[in-house]
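Task: encode each sequence below as structure tokens.

Item 1
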Amino acid sequence: VYPSQSNYIMCRVSQPWTAKELATRLLTRHRILIKALSQKQGFEGKEYVRIAIKDSAENDTLIKALRAYV
């Protein structure tokens, strides 16, 4: 996780997942939308996602979903 001045955080995605795979899985299985950054300029070959900070309930749902893939 990297410092942020907005309501987003950027996180590095570790193997065996790619950023795109994680974003797709969270969307299709949990209806959670995160942004894969791997195709963005400056991120080529790196696996990062951008996650919005939401309310406590939505953040808890995200954390629970992410734990299934750690």
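Item 2
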Amino acid sequence: RTRGTSSAALQQFVEAQRLNPESAQGYLFEADARAAAGDIAGAQEALRRGLVALPAHPLLTTALARLGGVP
């Protein structure tokens, strides 16, 4: 995967969050992409943004805990 593809994917995930902030998927996909690229802090931030929109969402909370973060 090239850097441009990763950047384009991240932009799509952020756009999905903007269009449908009540869906956890955009935040989860962004977090997965950032974690796969080694950006754990960025992944945690994406999940925390998701938790602002969807407080106590179980998938977001679990994903954040797996990355060593706290809500």
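Check on item 2: The chain has a mean pLDDT of 90. The first helix runs from residue 3 to 19.
End of task.
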